[in-house]
Every structure is written in C-alpha cells, then in structure tokens.
TrEMBL record:
Any single GO BP term: recombinational repair
Name this protein carries in UniProt: DNA 3'-5' helicase
Keywords annotated in UniProt: ATP-binding, DNA-binding, Helicase, Hydrolase, Isomerase, Nucleotide-binding
Pfam families noted in UniProt: PcrA_UvrD_tudor, UvrD-helicase, UvrD_C
Record-listed ATP binding positions: A27, G28, A29, G30, S31, G32, K33, T34
Keyword Isomerase: yes
NCBIfam families: PRK11773.1
Species: Aquitalea magnusonii
Amino acid sequence: MSELLAGLNNEQLRAVTWPAKSALVLAGAGSGKTRVLTTRIAWLIATGQVNPSGILAVTFTNKAAREMHTRLGAMVPVNVRTMWIGTFHGLCNRFLRAHYRDAGLPQAFQILDSADQQAAIKRLLKSLELSDEKYPPRAVQSFINGNKEAGLRADRLPPALNPYEAKLVELYAAYDAQCRREGVVDFAELLLRSYELLQANAALRAHYQGRFRHILVDEFQDTNRLQYAWLKLLSGEHNVLFAVGDDDQSIYAFRGAEVGNMRALLSDFQVAEPVRLEQNYRSVGTILNAANALIERNDGRLGKNLWTDAGEGEQIRLYEAYSDGDEAQFIIDEVKNLQREGMNLSDMAILYRSNAQSRVLEHVLVNAQLPYRIYGGLRFFERQEVKHALAYLRLVSNPDDDNALLRVINVPARGIGARTVENLQAISREQGVTLWQACCAAGGGRTAAKLGEFVLLIEALRNKSSAMTLAETVSLIIDHSGLRAMYEQDKKEGEERLANLDELVSAAAGFFPDQPELAIVEFLSAASLEAGEHQAEAGEDALQLMTVHAAKGLEFDAVFVSGLEEGLFPHENSMNDSKGLEEERRLMYVAVTRARKRLYLSCAQSRMLHGQSRYPIRSRFVEEIPAELVRVLSATVKPVPQASPRRAPWLEEASAPASTMSLQGFRIGQGVSHAKFGAGVVINAEGSGNDVRLQINFAEHGLKWLDLRYAKLTAEQ
Ligand SMILES: Nc1ncnc2c1ncn2[C@@H]1O[C@H](COP(=O)(O)OP(=O)(O)OP(=O)(O)O)[C@@H](O)[C@H]1O
Ligand SMILES: [Mg+2]
C-alpha cells in the first residue's frame, strides 16, 4: 500500500485517498491529475473498498485507456478487463453491445465514423432529391450531431424559425430512420442511445447504479452536456463521481464541451471545494512561466497557481523561417541534433494547429529518412484501401449495410456503373428494401449478370469466412475481392496501400474479442472507435506528429509548436470573437505545456496552404510570451527604411543571389511596393526563370521572402 502512495505530494495524497464521496480535482497542466486518478483506482481496489467491476473510468482517448489499463495492471494484481475503462464512446459501445435488444439495435450494429456519417447524409439528400449545395452535408451533419449532443431528437426540437431550419429537422428525422433501417449508429448516437436506454429502463439503471460505486473522469473540462447527464444518471444517489480537469485546457467548446460542467458538478454532487494541485512535475521553469504568462491573459478563469522545483531549464527557442519548407527543414535538423545528443525520437513531438500543415513536414521527413508517426490526419482506419477492405468485412457481417455496399460494389471495377447503382437505389426506395436485397432480386440481362457475380462473391466470402479466424477472413477478403490485384497494378501508390492492407491483417491477428463469435463485429467497432490512434502505437522509435488537439494529456521531452502565425494559430475562424480567441489561447497553453525540457516555437513568412500562398505575420501568442524566456534563432532584423542595396552580412549563408538579369524585371536594391506590406527594397533573391523568390525589406513589416509566382509586386521606377 505504502508503495502505491509513495512519492505523492500532500495534495495528491489527499485526492487519491479522498473518502467515498464526490470530488473535483481542479489543477493545471502536468500537476499529476491523470496520475492521481489512476492511483486512486489502484488504492480503492487495494484497500478493498471496491471490486474491480465496481469501477467506471472515462479517459479522453483509447490510447489513454490502454495506458491506464497497463499502469493499473502493474499496480494491483487484478484482472483489469473487468473494469470499465474507456472513452465515452467506447464505454457506450460496450453498454449497447450488452443490451442491444433493449436499445432496439441489431446485435451486429455498426458504427459510422464521421466520414461514413457524411456519406450516409449525402445518400439521404440524394434519395430525397435535395441538392447538397443548398444543404451542405457537413452543415446537416453538425446540425444533427449538435442536437444529439444536447440530448434532443428531431421530434423534441423547438419549432423551426424558418423553412430552411424546418428542412434540417426533417432531414434529421429521415437520417435517424435511415440509420435504424440499416442497423448503424453514429458517434453521437452511441451516447444518446445509451442515455435514453438508461433513462427509460429503471431495472437496467438500478443495476448499473448498483454496480459502479466509483465513477472517475479524466479531462472533465471537455465533457459536453449529454456526457455530463449520462454521468449523473449512472451515478444515481449514492455513487461517487471523481472528476479531474483543468478549465484552462478546455479546447472542445466548438464541439459542445461545457466548462460550466465543472461548476455544475460542485453543486449537483455537493462538493464543497475543489482539490487543487499546484506543483507541476512535467516542465522546467521557463516553459511553465511561458505557459502561465500566456494563460493569464484569458478572462473568467477559475484561477490556479503552478510552480515547479525542476529548475529554470533552457530558454525557449524561436525560429522565424522564410517559408514553410524552411521551417520544416529547421525542425527536422533540430530533431536530428537532439537525436545525436541521445534523445529518442518518440520523446519528441511536432505539433500543429491544422492537419493540412503535416504535408510539408512529411515531405522533409521522408527525404531525411526519419521514421515518424502521425496521430490523426489521414488515419490508418480512414485510408481508402483500409476502408474498402473494411467495407467488404461489413458486408460479410451484414450485407444489408448500404453504406458498405455502395463503397465497394464497383471497387475494383467490375462493370457496375453509376446508372445501375441509381436504379438499385430507386428500387430500394420504392420497395423499401436494402440495396443488397435489390441486387439479389435483379432480373436478367447483362447488368444483372454483373450484379449476380457481385452477390455470389459476397456470399462466397460469407460462407468461407464462417469457419475462419478473423485474420484469415480479412486476408481472404483482400485476396478474393480483387483489392490486392487492383493495388498490385497501381505503380504509384500500390505498394504503400498493399502494406497498409497487410497491416490490417496484422491488426486483425492481434485483436482479442470479448466474444469470439462476434469477432468481426467487435473488430469493426474497434476500427471505427480507434480511428486516429492506431498508427502511433507499437513499433520502432519514431517522431510523433499531431495536432495540438490530439496532444492533450500527453508529454514529450522536446516539443516543436509550428506554424505560429496569425490566421493559422490563432485560427482565422476564431479571430473575430473574444471567446474564440480565448479557446485558441487555451490551445496554445496545451501545446506549450506538453514539453518537459525543450520547447521550440516556429513560424514562416510565407506558406502554401490549401493551394494558396499566404504571407502571414507572427502569431500574437509568440508576443505574449515574455521576451526574456525566449532565444531567437533566426536572423530577424528591425526594418530599415533605407535599406542598403548591398547584400546584408547576416545573409552570408543564404543562397547566392541570382543574376540581376533573371529576376523578372526586378533588381537588388530596387524600390518596390506590395498591396499588403507597402513600400520596401529588394535585398536578395534566389531561384531563376519562373521560380524566383525575392527577399524584401519592407519599411513597416521588416524582412519577407516573396515568391514572384504569387506575390503581386510593383517596381518603383
Ligand atoms: N508526485 C509526483 N512525483 C513525481 N512525478 C510526478 C508526480 N506526480 C506526477 N508526476 C509526473 O508528472 C507528469 C505529469 O503528470 P500527469 O500527466 O498526471 O499530469 P496531468 O495533470 O494529468 O497533466 P495534463 O493536464 O497535461 O493532463 C507525469 O510524467 C507524471 O508521472
Ligand atoms: Mg492528464
């Protein structure tokens, strides 16, 4: 026992050994909240206060859940599988699988991830003959999910304000009906369905309230209304809700998270005072000071102090690159230096605000031959080839899954064209049958023969797979569906896609279902639920790349926060309102506090994003960090109104200036003007022909590199 509690500070100890009543631990980044939560579970079990089956713990990612399992396994000698530890979605999935009948679901119900859901909505719009320009599927999707997360079904919504909204409500109802017909549920539905079932079924509710004596929630600041209501319902009158969180790290308000749940918990669960942890064990002083200085600018915080006894550590490094490519190169060079100094690649992370930023980084990483893994982005289970294979697997499990059928009916191409598919959809609509049933009933003719072959293929896969293991089934599907042959012919990307398909077989081989007869179903739901986390798992030492959102709760020795530019971070959508900006600042706080020892900040003076080039200015968040904490690495100079035409000494290492002849009419030393940056002087150049970049010293905006293909520059004569 004493071993379990060894090393905890007094406040942590108080939280871990809190009596059997509800509590809120409110504390800043790196103060040990997650550690306290895990240790409390171990302590409750070790002291015999609860059986493992009496524990329900909610984590923010599946990865965090697995880590908690592993830690607990090492701390207390119990079968950790009997504990319910997982994300809200994972736990609701487990609950609905156990009670599918009461929930009105087929036993093999499938989970739609966000992309599947969008496809389902597109299909619905088409069947109702509504244009997706007028009703963008994304907008319909967020309308549906927003309402589900608020606990509202279509028939319980307040009267629509206008005909457009009325149509959205209709679409919501029609979408739910379509999902019911096809036996599928989306992410938000997992929660809402569980909540409704618990609420409607008193016996079930009593059972679970009796079972889960201790409910523990990590990252509580990011729970939404429905999740909070679900927790409240499960905890009943007597059970204990132990929540840990940090209002300064609430970064999902855009998805309905309510930091107000923290205040609600205090009153709903009669918690007199939150427990506060103030010592940070993660970061050196400089990093912590920077984080504190940043977050102090937000209003309405619950207020916290954080200190560390880890010493000041090194200064934060700031690099201002002239382009995104240069930024990426700088980062990768630093990564290599750190690696040479003995740091593992897996202890370093590159963080960015938007997934699109990873492309340039990946490009440089591939050239440098550094192994890396991306969390999020194009996720393993979202890759085209993997989704194709999973669609076949879905059909093997349930041929009435229309989404899956549409995805692969003509992949690989087997002569079933768009017209045929439209006919099938019309039959399905008119006769109220699934597409599979429509396929099976197709009459004579050439097209029907093609459909017949497809039906035979799926049936053969179903028959053969019934006596096979999961991995064998996946392998069979890849070979017999024609996917393997198709990718073998693809000279460009085939090799990588085949490797991913093989990886899928390995994933299936390493999957241990709770109920072997439901292996396929369980594997498919795990694939939907774990999208985005698989890649960053096992394997060789690799650099970690992810969005700041995905980095929540994690820590690394060295962290690179890239793209610190106005419009990118803070994101342009957030810049016009103070709430949005404060959420961005919390996001920056999360980014900075991921670092243990070394923190790099970087930005670029020009960036290609979504096919457009931009010339951004440095993020305000960089300016908000006290200057004495930062060491500037790039050659930044103050603007000089009358720049000398000679090459400046700090540019000695830059590439040699192109000859004045090839600069598309510009020359070094020439006065120029730019629509956004105003007047300046050309001081350096690189490239030739059409691909020329000029470095210009603008009187008001300082040094910039501009690409002449995109920049509109006028020469002063
Ligand atoms: N008492 C302690 N002694 C030594 N190390 C500790 C102690 N408490 C926590 N740590 C370590 O500090 C680091 C941060 O802890 P943890 O991840 O639990 O913080 P957190 O509050 O959950 O952070 P975040 O807000 O980012 O999720 C971890 O490496 C953890 O093992
Ligand atoms: Mg944590």
